[in-house]
# Entry
Amino acid sequence: MQIAENLSLLLSELPSGVSLVAVSKTKPIEDIEAAYAAGQRIFGENKIQEMTHKWEHLPKDIQWHMIGHVQTNKVKYMAPYVSLIHGVDRAKLLKEINKQAAKSNRIIDCLLQIHIAQESTKFGLDETELESIITQNPSDIYPNIRIVGLMGMATFTSDLDQVRSEFSYLNSLYKKAKNTLTDIQILSMGMSGDYKIAIEEGSTLIRVGSKLFGERN
Ligand SMILES: *Cc1c(COP(=O)(O)O)cnc(C)c1O
# Structure
């Protein structure tokens, strides 16, 4: 009941054009079923094994988003079913996703993750690397990948001006990227603690976990 309530409250706050990834990492199947029963179809996980286990046991119309850091050698496990990979942060990973997508006869949608935070522990491309990928006709180099947008994580800080300026910077890169690649239409930014700011700064896809499912252990 609580999950359904949290979900409807959150959805009621979202302007049109903003979608929700329900981040279910570490949460049991029953929690996902509760959100599913309330109408949610997009779920986000950050571990490929856990996501694959859940995919096997849950309805097949769920769209699974990989939001975590992706290890190259595990791409093959999600290639048959993953709906969107948010965390593409290196060319080598594009190469492997392309290869595994081809084996599954699929074109896999991907977001390029951009490093916008101050923490060095967070992954992502810088502006130069982003430009080099999107200006080199990626759909020719990687025919089984469609780059559909950008993703970023703000610094974990109580300084909300800092968070806002990082999101604003990401949005400026997004607008530029859109002019180069017409497939680009998703800006994935915003989590439980900062999704309101992210939406104000142009997010089209927020990734919310604890505010829906409760705190993780
Ligand atoms: C865990 C996670 C989220 C959700 O975080 P909450 O604070 O629980 O909403 C969003 N994005 C990424 C990349 C995550 O790893």
Observations:
- The domain at 2-213 is CATH 3.20.20.10 (TIM Barrel).
- The chain is about 40% helix and 20% strand.
- Residues 23, 25, 46, 67-68, 153, 191-193, 207-211 surround pyridoxal-5'-phosphate (CB under 6 Å).
